[in-house]
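Structure representation.

___
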Amino acid sequence: MLIVDLPLFSMATMAISGYYIASQRALYPNWKEQIKYLPILMAIGMGLCINNTRAVIEGWIGHQSAFLRTPKYGVIGQGDGGEQQLDSKKKRKYSGRKTLLALGELFKAAYFVVVIYKAWISGLYFGIPFLMLFHVGFLYIGLTSVLQSWSAYLRMREPLPRLAS
């Protein structure tokens, strides 16, 4: 098992690690100090795989959809009196919302809890840190998606504050 699995696993890990190190090297002059963030960077990259897969499939079939990670409300342009705001109906339409993707991400996080447990009771301790990367990535992205939609929902329900004249 080590003759086949270890080289394949190592090459896959080194390839993505090399990609992320190259990106940090291009962005930061002190890129060697940024290497400590490599595990969380890899975890977030793994957590985004469901959303990226959806985007690829939509691209293949020619379907266009809104980017749901960032709310699409707020400033829409410059007018005579300054910035214009969207009305509440348009805010509701474009604000972050719960999707099946967020539930899928949270399901995958729960799945990796089971996988980590199975690895532990089977004595496969070497793989647990890598399984934790998947768990943390899916949990972070899933919770962020759900919390974003929840906070957007609460913001829509609150009346806007009035400015004192």
